Amino acid sequence: MTLNDLLGCDVVTHDGRKLGSVIDVRLKTAGPAEPVQVLPFDALLVSRRSTGSLFGYERRREQGPALFAHFFRAIHREARLVPWSGVDQWTPGQTVTLKAGAAVTPALPEA
Amino acid sequence: MKRLLGVMLGILTAIGGFVDIGDLVTNAVVGSRFGVSLAWVVVVGVVGICVFAEMSGRVAAVSGRGTFDLVRERLGPRAGLLNLLASVAVTLLTFIAEIGGIALALELVSGVNYLLIVPFAAFALWLILWRVKFVAMENVFGLAGLALVVFAVAVWQLGPDWEQLLHHATHPVVPFGEGHPTYWYYAIALFGAAMTPYEVFFFSSGGVEEKWRRKDLIEARMNVFLGFPLGGTLSLAIMTCAALVMLPRGIEVTTLGQVGLPVAVALGKIGIAFALVGFVAATFGAACETGLAVGYSVAQFYGWQWGKYVSPARASRFHLLILVSTLLAVAVLLTTVDPIKVTEYSVVFSAVALPLTYFPILVVANDPDYMGPSVNGRLANTLGVVYFFILTVAALAALPLMLITKAGQ
Amino acid sequence: MSDSPDRVPRKATGEVSYDAALRLLDRQVIDSDGAFVCNVDDLEVDVSGTGPPRITALLTGPAALGPRTGGFIGRWMVATWRRLAPDQDPRPGRIDLHLIADIDSAIHLAVPRRRLAELADGDKGIDGFEQWARSVVIGRIPGARHDPE
User: Fold this and answer.
1) Most exposed: B46, B52, B175, B312, by fewest CB within 10 Å?
2) Which subunits count as partners of chain A given 3+ CB pairs below 8 Å?
C-alpha cells in the first residue's frame, strides 16, 4: 500500500454525499526532538479541486506573493480537514467513507 | 583586495556571458527592420531576468538546490513532467542553435564550411563539459565575451544623431513597411531572447556548483544587478549598429556575418577581429550553459546526482544525458537546417515556456520552509507578480502571432 | 560537500505535524555526505494492526513514480522500465524512515549512499540506472573518476 492509493480518493460522508477528494494527509510526528520512526495518519485534507494543492497557500496565511495567496486560497476556500478517527472505511485507490458525526473543519486557519 | 577582484571578475563574466546566439541574431534582425523602436523590450527583458535570476540565485544559496528540484515539488509528478518536457524541448532547441552558432562563428573565422565544423565544435564542447572546472569555464568564456564591447565602440564610431536615436527609442513607432502584428511578434522574440529560461536553470544550479551560501548573496546580487544590465547594453549596441547601418540600406539580417557587418563598416578589420572573438566566446559559453541546463533540469527532476563539482562517475546519468544531447544536436545540425532559423524559433519558444519556469521559482522564493527568513520582500514580489503577468501574456500571444505573421515575414 | 547551506532545521521550527504530499513527496533525498540519492516518488503505508495507517518508508524509482504520474504516461513509464531491466525486481527502491536524520527543504539521511546499497541487499531499486550508466558508458570514458576538487 502506498500514499498514492490514498491521494485522489473520493471522500464520501456516511450518507453518501461527496465531500471532495483527498489532496493530502496530515501526519503526526513524535515531536521535534524525536527522530523520525513512523509517521501515523492524523487527518485528511479534502478539497473539491486539486490545482494548487502543493503550493501550501491553503494552509499557511503568511505565504506570499499576496496575489497568488489570495487566488489559491479563494479556490480552496472549501478545503476541509477530517481527523483520521472520523474515517469509517478506506477502499485504496477509490473511496474513503466517513463515519456519522465525523468532525469536519475548515482547512484554512481562519476564514 | 582579493574579494574585490573576485567581485569584479564576477561582474565582467556576467556582462560577457549575457549575450548568446539568440541575442546576437534577434537584436540584429530587429535593428535592421525596426530600428530602435523595440529597444524598450530589451530594457523590460533585462529587468525581468534580473528579478528572477536574483530570486533563483537566492533560492540556490539558501537551500542548496537548483530550480528543477522545486518544479517537481510544487507541481507534482504529472504537471511537473509536462513542464519538464516543455522546458527540456526549448532548452535543447536553444542548445542546437548555440552549437550551430559556434560553427557559424568559426566559419567566419576560418572560411571552412560550418557543417564540417559542427562535429569538431560539438566534441570540443563535450570535452569542456566533461573535464574543465565549472568556474574556469565560466570565467574564460565570460571574459572573452567582453570582446562584444566592440559593438558599443562601433556605435560611437558611427557617430549617430544621439538625440534622434533617443527620440526613436522612447517614442516607438512601427516603421513604414512593417505591420503591427510583426512588431509585436518581434517584441516577444526579443523578450524571449533576453529572458531565456535556461539562464535561470543554469544560474541557480551554477550557484550550487559554486557552493554559494548566504554570505555569497551580496556578490551574486552584484553580478546580477550590475552584470546583466551592462550585458543588456551590449544587446542594445548590436541593435543600434544594425539600425544605423542596415536599416537605411534596407539590408535584412539572415546570416551571422551580417550581424557583424556594422562593425566592419565602422572599425574595419580590427573591429571584425574583436567581433569574431566575441561571437565564438558568446556561442561557446552559451552552448556550455544550455548543455548543462538540459542535464540540470532532468537530473533535478528525478533526484539524480548532478553537477560538475563531483567526478563524472558519481553523476553518470547526468553526463550520459549531456552526451546524448550533444550527439542529438549534431545529428539535427547535420540535416543542414539553417542555424539562424533554429535560433529564431528558439527565442520565440523560449517566450512560450517562460511562465512554466518562473511560476515555481516565484512560489518557492516565498516559501518559509525553503527560505527561512530570506523569503521575498515586497519589492521582489511586486516585480515578480507584474512580470509573471507580462510573460504569461507574451507566452499566450507568441504562437498566434507566429502563425499570423508566418514567423515574422 | 563538507559544509551544508544554512538550512532551516525542523527542530528549530518546532513542527509537530507534516503534510505528507506537501513536505515529503517529490522531495530530494540527500545522504549524510551531501550526495543526492533520489527523489521521494511515493510513500509506503502500513495498514496492519490497530491504530491509524502509518508511513513506514520512502519509495523511489519508476515503479513508484509511474502510478503517481498516472494515466497513459505513467503506465508507459513502468512498462518501458520493466522491459529495459528484466532482471530487476519490479519493486520500487525503499528507504526506511528510521534512516532519516532531518527534514527541511530536502530529506537528509543519517547514512551514506553505500550503506543504502548494503541495506538494500542487492535490490537495485534506488540506483539501478546510475550503475548501468556508469558501467556501460560513463565509466569507460577516460577521466570519469577524476575528482574536480
Assistant:
1) B175
2) B, C
Indicate if ipTM > 0.95.
Answer: no
Encode pLDDT of C55-77 as tens digits: 999 999 888 898 888 788 888 88
B46-105 confidence digits (pLDDT tens): 999 999 999 988 988 888 888 788 788 878 888 889 889 999 999 999 999 999 999 999
DSSP string, chain A: -BGGGTTT-EEE-TTS-EEEEEEEEEEE-S-TTSPP--EEEEEEEEES--TTTTS-TTT-SS-S-HHHHHHHHHHTTT-EEEEGGGEEEEETTTEEEEPTT---EESSS--
Q: Which of residues 15-74 of C touch B (CB under 8 A)?
A: 23, 26-29, 35-41, 60, 65, 68-71, 73-74
Model confidence pLDDT, tens digit, residues B225-279: 999 999 999 999 999 999 999 999 989 899 999 999 999 999 999 999 999 999 9
> Which residues of C are less than 8 Å from B63 in CB distance?
5, 7, 105-106
Count of helix runs (H) and strand runs (E) in chain B: 17, 0
Chain A stretch 42-71, residues whose beta carbon is closer than 8 A to a beta carbon of chain C: 42, 45, 53-54, 56, 59
Q: Which range marks the domain in which residue A68 is found?
A: 3-106
Q: Which of C21, C59, C67 sits opposite A54 (nearest CB)?
A: C21
| B283 touches B291 (CB < 8 A) | no
User: What total number of domains does chain A contain?
Assistant: 1
From the candidate CATH numbers 3.10.450.50, 3.40.50.1400, 1.10.4160.10, 3.50.50.60, the one assigned to the domain spanning B14-404: 1.10.4160.10
Which residue does chain B place closest to A23, by CA atoms? B76
- Whether residue C143 lies within 8 A of chain B, CB to CB, comes out as yes
- What fold, for C22-140? SH3 type barrels. (2.30.30)
Q: What is the reported pTM?
A: 0.91
Rg of the Cα atoms in chain A: 15
Of residues C11, C55, C64, nearest to A27 (C-beta): C55
Under 8 Å CB pairs connecting chains A and B tally to 30
> What are the two backbone dihedrals, phi and then psi, of residue A88, each rounded to the nearest 5 degrees?
-90, -50
Residue A111 inside a domain? The answer is no
Residue range C34-52, pLDDT digits in tens = 999 999 999 999 988 888 8
